Structures are given as C-alpha cells and as structure tokens.
Amino acid sequence: MINVASPIIGEREKKLVQDVLDSKILASGKYVAQFERSFAKYCGIDFGIANANGTTSLHTALLMLGIKPGDKVVTTPFTFIATSNSILFCGAKPIFVDIDPKTFNIDPIKLEEALKKGKNVKAVIIVHLYGLPCDMDAILKLKKKYKFKLIEDACQAHGAEFENKKVGSFGDAAVFSFYATKNMMTGEGGIVLTNDAKADKYGRQIINHGREGHFTHTALGYNFRLTNLAAAIGMAQLEQLENWIAKRIANAKKYNEAFKDLEFLKTPYVPENCRHVFHQYTVRVSSKERESFMKYLSDKGVGSGIYYSCVIYKQPLYKKLGYKSGLCKEAEKSTAEVVSLPVNPSLSIAEVDEVIKVVKGYKK
Ligand SMILES: *Cc1c(COP(=O)(O)O)cnc(C)c1O
C-alpha cells in the first residue's frame, strides 16, 4: 500500500535521541531550548515556546493573548477539531466563518461580514489548511480595521510562505504541531511563536504550572512541556525540513501536470504569491463519486484520506452547544468532495508514478 502519511526517521534522529538517553536529562533540557530557538529563527520570529502538542499550543496561545470566558473568537469550521476546541478550553465562544472553495481557507470577505455583525470579536484563528497560506494581505487589512488578536494555526504549514514570508510570522502568535504525521514531527509536540516578550513570558508560565521563579506560582498554569527526547527528534527533523518540502512540492507538481485534463477530478489551486508545502495533496471529486473512487484506489494499492469529513459545528459536541447545520455552505460541500492522495517525501519516484497511473486509470 502506498500510504498518505509515513514518518521519516533516520540515523540523525537516533543519534540525538541516544544523546538524550545517555545524558539522563529526559524532561526539560538543552534540546528543548535549542529547538525553541532554532524553529523560531527558521520562521523569522523572536520567541518559541515548545509545547506538549499542537492542541496545548493553541490553548497556550489563546491564554497568552488574554482570551477570557465569554470572549468571541472567529475561526473556520473546515479544520481539525483542536482548532475550535482550544477556544472552548478558554470558556470562549467559537464563531464559524465559511471557507473560499478554491483555497479551502477562511474567506476574507465572509470574515469581514462576521466581524461587522459579531461586534467585539476578540481574536481570529486562521488555519493554513493542507499547507497553503491564507490570504494574509486581506486578513492583515481586516486586523488593522477591526483590531482583533490574530493567531495562525500553522499546524499543517511548516515552511509555507506568503509573498516570500514564512507563515507563523503574521499574527500575534502562531502555533505549529509536530504530531507524527505532520511535515516534521517529534512524535507528539508543538510550539507557540510570538514576537511579544511579555506574551512569551506569560506563555512560559502557562506551560509550567504558572510558575514564576523557582517556588512561586502567580498564575493558573498547566503542564504542557515538551520533553528533551521529543525536542532532540525535532532538531534532527528541522535540519531536513527544507529538503522534504522540496520533495512534497515536486510530487505535487507532477500530479498537477498529470491530472490537469481529468474531468472527474479537480487539482489543488496554488495562488502565485504562495509557497504551498502540501501537507496534504487534496483534490475534489463529485460527492457521488468519492466513495467508489477511494475504494478503487485502495483496491489498486493507493492509500487516500478525507480531511475533513464533517464540519466542526456538525459534530455532536457542537450540536449540543447549539450550533446548527447549514451555517457554512462551502465548507459543508467540501467535506463531501475532498480526497487526499499520498504526496509525502518518503514516496519513491516509482510510487509517485504508480499513483499517477492508478488515478488516470479510473473510469477507463
Ligand atoms: C494537527 C493539527 C492540530 C493539533 O495538533 P496536535 O499536535 O495533534 O494536538 C491543530 N490544528 C490543525 C489544523 C492540525 O492539523
């Protein structure tokens, strides 16, 4: 089976992990500090706070920016559930805004409508879905006009760029995940980035029981720390990230070229001013066709996935909170049409060619 996701673990990861094991410094340690600095620098940001995972990173970012119970926070419903659950963790209220069907990212025009209507929106969490940056020109204009805090959920977009600037460097804070199947990984892990020294200081308290100094706890905090073991893997992975991104982009380019004339399938759209890092290579097929297409792929040994099969507000948890179906038409339509194909850098040239052959063979 040619898999959609497959983590790459080489000698470098093993060597650095061995170094941590030998040192017996397993929890916080030098690799955590090094990884925070290195990843932040890679994105062009001053501070990085390593975190247990992407979900705790989102929670930390919202608290860092002062989100309180009852606050309104706008986000997209077409993302992993962690994005909006982090809003619930803070006692705040998620407001869902529809996506642009071309990019799958939040639609800036609909975002402005929501900001006009919603009054006092404290924060907006945008998601650079599948590795494609949101329309940052439009979103930063809205930020200036409506004065909300901006958090980038860049959990799928390590190394993605909008007008040659890395995602994670546009908002008041940004969040990345290093879950096992992301573009780089630490098993479980995450990071929050910010240029604000005060927010960084408070964020460090949040992830470490609200501690200030050695014996004093001045805020309610959690244990959201990353381990030295995980950070060592992260250091090794970061060294290889650009190489892996280049492979993802090359694979996607081959697919785009090979699939451009297929009538039953629509290839991903990449605006000219964006570097899409293809965490997922996601195509659209008709909702009637999707199941049979995926079954055909699987029968031919090609894995595929659906991200995401349900908008967040239609999940039972959110229905109980009072959200109704029909809120975001384009997002709902997308949940029925998207299919992600294997694009990861562990694929051989022969495997990429096999995916192409199989996909083109559908309906022949
Ligand atoms: C993976 C992911 C998260 C959560 O990250 P975890 O490390 O799994 O907690 C949040 N948002 C998006 C868009 C993700 O893809």
Provide tags for this entry.
364 residues; 14 strands; binds pyridoxal-5'-phosphate
Radius of gyration, CA atoms, in whole angstroms: 20 Å
Largest sheet, strands/sense/barrel: 7 strands, mixed
Question: Terminal Cα separation, in Å?
Answer: 22 Å
- State the share of residues found in helices, binned by percent: 40-55%
Structural class: alpha/beta
Q: How many separate helices?
A: 12
- Outline the low-pLDDT stretches: none
Across the major sheet, the strand order is 1-9-8-5-4-2-3
List each distinct ligand once. Answer: pyridoxal-5'-phosphate
Order of helices and strands: HHEHEHEHEHEEEEEHEEHEEHHHEH
> What is the global morphology?
globular
Mean pLDDT level: 97
How many strand elements? 14
Classify the beta-strand content into a percent band.
5-15%
In terms of quaternary structure, the protein is: single chain
